[in-house]
Design goal:
Elements (H helix, E strand, L loop, with lengths): L9 E4 L5 H12 L3 E4 L4 H9 L7 E3 L7 H11 L5 E4 L17 H29 L2 E5 L12 H20 L4 E6 L6 H6 L15 H9 L5 E4 L11
Parallel strand pairs: 1-2, 1-4, 2-3, 4-5, 5-6, 6-7
Helix pairs in contact: 3-4, 4-5
């Protein structure tokens, strides 16, 4: 018989039904965190929550982070205190990835809305709860934010915007820790969509990135932008 741990901390992780979001949520759930999890696919989110070791500690709120009503529902589910906000939900844009000269403005607006506007709007909605806990914000960025890759212009521009938002928020909100982190290449559905038909089995599993993220989640690193590959894992048990 498994004993349910008593949660002492609360985290909201967006895009948590698969990939890095699910891997991080699973680790936090094992550690006894109370979780509010979001994803667009309600069925897939429910299945992901059911597979966690302590699903009773999870509130699943399916929806689109670009929808203000959904963000309000997430804030209501969080309650008065939030220790960690992980802005992981992202929109890649059209697949196969088109060159910028062929990227439709409506597609670019959608990418920016999900990857940059929604994380800021969600933080604004949750700011009182984050301040109550002197919490942390972790924005999942990309090397495409700082490197020029053909086809990645729309996605990269949105992540560059997210990086700048995080940097300015860190200055404006010194009572919080605000991080942007580049997780590196991973074996995810999004990465597969970027390279349709290609074999991406050589990419690392998202779970391998979680120990680096925990340095930002539970360590003492200052606000800033980090690369997961440069973050040493915390000691076991921390």
């Amino acid at each position: 018989m498994t004993t349910t741990p008593t949660p002492h901390r609360t985290a909201l992780v967006t895009g948590a039904s698969r990939g890095l979001g699910h891997a991080l949520a699973a680790d936090l759930n094992r550690r006894g965190w109370r979780l509010v999890l979001d994803a667009r696919d309600a069925g897939r989110l429910a299945g992901s929550v059911a597979a966690l070791p302590h699903p009773e500690l999870v509130v699943a709120v399916p929806g689109d982070v670009a929808d203000p009503r959904h963000r309000a529902a997430l804030a209501a589910a969080v309650g008065p205190r939030l220790d960690l906000l992980v802005n992981n939900a992202s929109d890649l844009g059209p697949s196969p990835l088109p060159p910028l000269a062929e990227l439709a403005p409506v597609a670019l607006r959608r990418i920016l809305e999900v990857n940059a506007v929604a994380p800021l709007a969600l933080l604004q909605a949750l700011l009182p709860a984050l301040r109550a806990a002197r919490g942390r914000v972790v924005d999942i960025s990309s090397d495409a934010a700082v490197e020029a890759y053909a086809g990645w212009g729309g996605y990269g521009a949105s992540k560059a915007a997210l990086d700048q938002l995080a940097a300015v928020l860190a200055v404006e909100l010194p009572d919080l820790r605000v991080h942007a982190v580049d997780p590196g290449d991973m074996r995810t559905d999004m990465h597969q969509a970027a390279y349709p038909g290609e074999d991406i089995s050589d990419r690392p599993d998202p779970a391998t990135v979680v120990p680096a993220l925990l340095r930002l989640v539970t360590g003492d690193l200052p606000s800033g932008r980090y690369r997961a590959a440069e973050l040493a894992p915390l000691e076991a048990g921390r």
